[in-house]
Design goal:
The complex is a heterodimer of chains A (179) and B (263).
Chain A lengths: L2 H12 L3 H23 L2 H17 L9 H20 L17 H7 L3 H9 L3 H12 L4 H8 L3 H24 L1
Helix pairs in contact in A: 1-2, 2-3, 2-4, 3-4, 6-9, 7-9, 8-9
Chain B lengths: L2 H15 L4 H11 L3 H19 L16 H12 L22 H58 L4 E5 L2 E6 L2 E6 L9 E9 L6 E6 L7 E5 L6 E10 L12 E4 L2
Antiparallel strand pairs in B: 1-2, 2-3, 3-6, 4-5, 4-7, 7-8
The chains are: A mainly alpha (179), B alpha+beta (263).
């Protein structure tokens, strides 16, 4: 789904258009469920989070302020999954701000169109010592300090690896989009 | 570029990933407000982080890792309920006592001031409590909708399993049951699996030569599992079960423990 399509559909959701909501669900439910399942490894819990996220979209569509809808809904999903993880074990995970206005940068728009398989391939190309902390930080819902502790790696090294990995991923996706 | 800036840029990356504790995240936000280079780095990496999230999207053809087909109707039902016209009660005003009572002006002013101060304080406290209550009500409402939908699904399953018109296909440790197009695997003596293994259902469409992957599941501690298979029984030739690695497989990797032709 094009970014502009999603923006138009969200505007229609604000006007209580169930057809627009259904179109957004059809286009994004596998993304929302996929993120929740990856984080929770529990099908009923992932479905619970998927339902919560889409009901939130319906009840508070104004929280999305335009730009990359897929990126926004991933942040909302991740935060809901983190809530669930926290309720299972008290931890101090970092959240991604949901209400932060998405920048209308062309890069965001370009990445919004990118195929998940292509991102998986780009991630797979990263050295394992960079890929692991990125995936653990995002899907594992743990802090960089915990990643450093678990891997027995100095904190500064983990931070540098996260940044290097994200930069490489960014470069690879830039090339994939312009190719 | 100084080492100090390098350090901040690394922090910006961790912040963009969402892997930073709240207190530290605030420090990075404060810094970014005054540092154009870090804001630029954040914008650059934020898009990469968004892509990391998108990598988790489940492929359309990968049925075992997709949400249940019952989820969409459940959500659509919930949102349609919110747009039913609400009946609003018209509040009736109590009869007002219009008798005028004369008081010295300064007493009235002092009383008004006192009332205003007390009201303001009460307002602040009540507003806070109201917001908390609204948040809790919204959370409970969502939970209640989910539970009600789950209960409705469970009732449908139970009704199908005991309906006289249901077809029962016994297998070792349980049975496959079909009713009005719906398919269930109902097991009561399913052995526990080692860590990292799950049971996976497979379906063979009529006229097809290869089985398609379906849901994965594990039994409860007593070996019981009742699973709805998201497929129409009328277009299905057979259902099979096998043991697969966690997350399911695209093709069976072990010999099926049950193979049931649906007649």
């Amino acid at each position: 789904m094009e970014v502009t399509d999603a923006n138009v559909l969200v505007a229609r959701v604000k006007e209580r258009d169930t057809g627009a909501f259904e179109a957004l669900y059809d286009a994004h439910h596998r993304l929302v469920y996929g993120v929740a399942f990856r984080m929770l490894a529990d099908r009923p819990a992932a479905e619970d989070v998927t339902q919560t996220v889409f009901l939130k979209l319906w009840n508070s569509p104004e929280l999305f302020r335009g730009g990359n809808f897929a990126a926004w809904i991933v942040r909302v999903t991740r935060n809901r999954a983190l809530d669930l993880i926290r309720s299972r074990a008290t931890r101090n995970e970092g959240e991604l701000p949901e209400s932060l206005p998405e920048q209308e940068a062309i890069e965001d728009v370009a990445f919004a169109r990118i195929d998940a398989e292509r991102v998986r391939s780009a991630l797979a190309m990263l050295p394992v010592e960079q890929r692991e902390p990125i995936e653990l930080g995002f899907f594992g819902g743990i802090t960089h300090e915990e990643i450093a502790r678990r891997s027995g790696t100095p904190l500064g090294t983990i931070k540098t690896r996260i940044r290097s990995g994200l930069r490489k991923l960014r470069d690879a996706l830039d090339q994939a989009v312009t190719a | 570029m100084s080492d100090r800036i390098h350090e901040f840029l690394d922090d910006v990356a961790v912040y963009a990933l969402g892997a930073m504790p709240a207190a530290e995240a605030q420090r990075v936000r404060d810094h970014m407000a005054t540092c154009a280079e870090c804001r630029e780095e954040y914008a650059l990496l934020k898009a990469a982080v968004a892509a990391v999230g998108q990598s988790a999207e489940t492929p359309a053809a990968d049925a075992p890792s997709c949400p249940s087909t019952l989820l969409k109707p459940r959500i659509m039902r919930a949102i349609r309920e919110t747009i039913k016209p609400a009946v609003q009660a018209v509040p009736t005003s109590p009869a007002r006592d219009n008798r005028s009572i004369l008081r010295p002006a300064y007493l009235v002013a002092a009383a008004c001031l006192a009332i205003a101060v007390v009201s303001s304080i009460t307002d602040i406290v009540l507003t806070g409590q109201l917001k908390q209550a609204q948040t809790e009500i919204a959370r409970l409402s969502t939970r209640s909708t989910t539970l009600a939908a789950n209960l409705a699904d469970t009732r449908t399953t139970l009704a199908d399993l005991v309906d006289a018109d249901s077809k029962h296909y016994p297998i070792n440790g349980g049975e496959v049951v079909t009713h009005v197009g719906r398919v269930y695997v109902a097991m009561h003596e399913l052995p526990q699996l080692p860590h990292g293994k799950v049971y996976q259902a497979w379906t063979l469409a009529k006229g097809a030569k290869k089985v398609a992957p379906s849901v994965t599941f594990v039994p409860n501690a007593r070996g019981v599992a009742v699973i709805a298979i998201p497929i129409d029984a009328r277009s299905t030739a057979a259902v099979a079960l096998s043991v697969e690695p966690e997350g399911g497989s695209k093709q069976p990797t072990t010999k099926p423990i049950a193979l049931v032709p649906l007649t």
